[in-house]
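Lab notebook: predicted structure, single chain.

Context: the supervisor wants predicted structures on file for every construct in the current expression panel, including those that have not yet been purified. This is the next one on the list. No modifications to the sequence; it matches the entry in the shared construct table.
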Amino acid sequence: TLKSILPTQFEPGSLADRLLIQGREEGREEGLERGELRGKIHILQEMLGDSATGNEELDKQTLSELSALISQLQSRLRSRRS
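Prediction complete. Output recorded below exactly as produced.
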């Protein structure tokens, strides 16, 4: 699709090439962070005896919402131990 709209080749080191590489790196980093947060949520839910939230549902949430959920689960776990 891109070739039909923009029949130009990206030159290595060009601005377009650097932006593509930066976008890929940012997407990869966010994907890794999202996967890490999902894993923590599932572990905490298992420790609390909760049913695991599906990845599809978690993927709809922002990274800050996932972090907030982790904080809530950690708080529940701490209060359970007291």
